[in-house]
Amino acid sequence: MAKKKPVRKETAESMGARQREISVSEFFLKNRHLLGFDSPRKALLTTVKEAVDNALDACEEAGILPSISVELRQLAENRFVVHVTDNGPGVVRKQIPKIFAKLLYGSKFHRLRMSRGQQGIGISAAGMYGQLTTGRATRIWSKTQRQACAHRIAVQIDTKTNKPVILEDEEVEWAPAFHAEDPHAEPVTAHHGTCVSIEMEAAYIRGRLSVDEFLKQCAIVNPHLQLHYRVVLLSKKDPKADAAQSDFIGQEPPWTVFARGVDSLPPPSGEIKPHPHGVELGVLIQMLKDSSARTLKVALTQDFSRVSDKAAHFICDTAGLSPKAHPRRIAHQESEALYKAINEVKLMRPPTDCLSPIGEEQILAGLQKEIKADFYTAVTRNPTVYRGNPFQVEVGLAYARPGENADLGGDDPVRVLRFANRVPLLYMGGGCAITKSVNSVNWKSYGLAQPKGSPPLGPMVIMAHMASVWVPFTSESKEAVAHYAEIIRELTFALQECGRRLSVYLNKRKRAAEAERKRGYIEKYIPHLALGLHDILKFSDQEQTKVEAALKEMLERTHLQV
């Protein structure tokens, strides 16, 4: 029997020799589930989500009513190519490789204003996933208003260095993929915009967690959006597939059109400075080091929001520091005293012009456009703050009569549509503050059945939207809102207000149904009453008919008055 070789023990030198820097691209390549690419089905949804989010942000910042085209084209059993085209301002040539093939690169991370994208990861991660699963490059066509031709560029990510590698770069004619309101009509000309094409391993499955559902919810929460969408499949896989789609298997199917509900853009959101009550000690120390101010007082008033000269003096006095001290020379111990003093002083809440809520009228327009119901209502709460970050909560509700909407079952749990900064959240509903708020409301007091600790039952849709400069997601995949007490409180208040309005509607409908039931009984027995009068008072047949007509007329007048 051969002797086992002795295990060589590591030394500090041998372990140190193996240490090397990890690129952010390498990290997310091995942990792509953190970004929403943990299954082929979800990877397809995440890719569409990131591309549509970028398109909407670009159009709104440029003041352009967004028109977006999304096409999923199947190339093999488990391979798709995703095309997303917009009519936005386009991207300048030198920025295209970095935006689409470099993780943690963008313009929104350091800005305190409401926007869909934030971290500069999403669309680059989608391209990296396509590169990992198919080896194919991400292709981008982009044309700005000032350019005569479009740039066509193919890029990949060098995951070891997190830098873009350009494989193709040429000027081409711009051929946008927009379409008229009629899905069979000729394409509409758009003179500028961006188109991104990513080939990847994916699975297209219909249902509540599909691309179809995501885009429908996008149309609800963005009523100013015009969206065209189609899926081109190679073969019929699902026997329960939508008949309108399956008729075109292997052909060019018509486009599904989500028309605009409103013709105006959301109000633009401004940019604000950090609020002192939302800044932690380490961030405060770094801000003081990076400040261009020459005195501590000026740094507090210049680099933070809602700090007046009087408040800055009070903070300095409380911390035992001179207002004329140089901010870069503040020692660590003095920074701790300053941080403590900041949290003791009362300051105005941060400005809220950095938010762009949907608005009650637009919420109603989106719900009425996509969901068939009998009763609609919406509530937009006033802005408030968590950890120094302003946020605003909105809730909409659509209730259908039982049996009138096949998508809304009478005895099933209500559908809860969750949104953050106008983006649908389809996954991780159980860990979301929105779901917790819906379940915590006592819906029985508003006329709905509700199992303990669960959502109410009934033919209803609840949509809840959180708008904030920094949404506290529970993970990098941005699928669920964290359980901050301030957020749950605002959501609960908005849900309760919608519940009270629903209760008024249900009670009114119940009273109307009861009155109609009683009216039916009376109508049923009027002929018998007239016959009884005929027998008692010896009416003629003609008089009996007159009495019966008079009783019906009186009943009708009473019903109209009610």
Walk me through this protein's architecture.
Helices cover 36% and strands 18% of the residues. About 3% of the residues have low confidence. The chain has 562 residues and is an alpha+beta fold. The protein starts with 11 loop residues before the first helix and ends with a helix.
Index terms:
562 residues; alpha+beta; Heat Shock Protein 90; Helicase, Ruva Protein, domain 3; Ribosomal Protein S5, domain 2; 4 domains; eight-stranded mixed beta sheet; six-stranded mixed beta sheet; 14 strands
Task: Outline the fold blueprint.
Blueprint: H1 12-17, H2 24-30, H3 40-61, E1 67-76, E2 79-86, H4 96-100, H5 122-134, E3 138-143, E4 150-158, E5 163-172, E6 193-201, H6 211-221, E7 226-232, H7 243-246, E8 256-258, H8 281-290, H9 296-303, H10 309-319, H11 332-344, H12 360-370, E9 375-380, E10 384-386, E11 389-399, E12 415-420, E13 423-425, H13 433-440, E14 460-468, H14 485-537, H15 541-561
Parallel strand pairs: 1-7, 12-14
Antiparallel strand pairs: 1-2, 2-6, 3-4, 3-6, 4-5, 7-8, 9-11, 10-11, 11-14, 12-13
Helix pairs in contact: 3-5, 6-12, 9-10, 10-11, 13-14, 14-15
